[in-house]
Design goal:
The complex is a heterodimer of chains A (about 110) and B (about 120).
Chain A: E1 4-7, E2 10-13, E3 19-25, E4 33-38, E5 45-49, E6 53-54, E7 62-67, E8 70-75, E9 84-90, E10 103-107
Chain B: E1 3-6, E2 10-12, E3 18-25, E4 34-39, E5 45-51, E6 58-60, E7 68-73, E8 78-83, E9 92-104, E10 107-115, E11 119-123
Parallel strand pairs in B: 2-11
Antiparallel strand pairs in B: 1-3, 3-8, 4-5, 4-9, 5-6, 7-8, 9-10, 9-11
The chains are: A mainly beta (about 110), B mainly beta (about 120).
Chain lengths: ~110, ~120
């Protein structure tokens, strides 16, 4: 199975900060990558699919980039409602489509 | 509004089975795949399997082969996941999720949206 590794595991940032989370795949996955946000007690919600396509209804401060093995999720100006844990998931080939271990974002 | 609503929390003893339901509303149930994913405490999400809407095809993750069964009742717009021979390591929140797809040329991108609210399964003697 393809292994997905995120960094950092956690971060603390202030409102208005630019935040970047990285996700690395153990092999080339093209742009078959999705980003989710999960807040405590809730199910994950998709932010970005196909590495850089913004899901409808998601604020434009979220953006995704990368291809091959290295990907980024950027929040251009962190807002209080952006706290939670962010996960990447690949969808290369047939399932299983594995997830990263998550990056917990806290607001200072 | 597209929604997946799962059955409630379960407490089971080791060796028992659990069957979780996932009822869909707000979309044509038969047009989408349903995936099952779990998250054990402090662990990453783990994909368990999926059911293809068009033909009922199912595929399971290797680590669950022989223990998991995914079924659908199209008349009820519901999917089910049954996990047998439970052990303490199966304590987790279990989610169903709709498979979404966007195809551009020969490339088809997949993601899960929406997810059910999750069902906590606790396995304890």
């Amino acid at each position: 199975d393809i292994q997905m590794t995120q960094s950092p595991s956690s971060l603390s940032a202030s409102v208005g900060d630019r935040v970047t989370i990285t996700c690395r795949a153990s092999q080339n996955i093209g742009t078959y990558l999705t980003w989710y946000q999960q807040t405590p007690g809730r199910a994950p919600q998709v932010l970005i699919y196909a590495a850089s396509s913004l899901q409808g209804g998601v604020p434009s401060r979220f953006s995704g980039g990368g291809s091959g093995t290295d990907f980024t999720l950027t929040i251009s100006s962190l807002q209080p409602e952006d706290f939670g844990t962010y996960y990447c998931q690949h969808s290369y080939g047939t399932p299983p489509w594995t997830f990263g271990q998550g990056t917990k974002v806290e607001i200072k | 509004q597209v929604q997946l609503v799962q059955s409630g929390a379960e407490v089971k003893k080791p060796g028992a089975s659990v069957k979780i339901s996932c009822k869909a509303s707000g979309h044509a149930f038969n047009n989408y795949a349903i995936h099952w994913v779990r998250q054990a405490p402090g662990q990453r999400f783990e994909w368990m399997g999926w059911s293809n809407a068009a033909n009922g095809y199912t595929k399971y993750a290797q680590e669950f082969q022989g223990r998991v069964t995914i079924t659908r009742d199209t008349s009820a717009s519901a999917a089910y996941m049954e996990l047998n021979n439970l052990r303490s390591e199966d304590t987790a929140v279990y989610y169903c999720a709709r498979g979404q797809r966007d195809c551009s040329g020969t490339n088809c991108y997949y993601w899960f949206d929406p997810w059910g609210q999750g069902t906590l399964v606790t396995v304890s003697s």
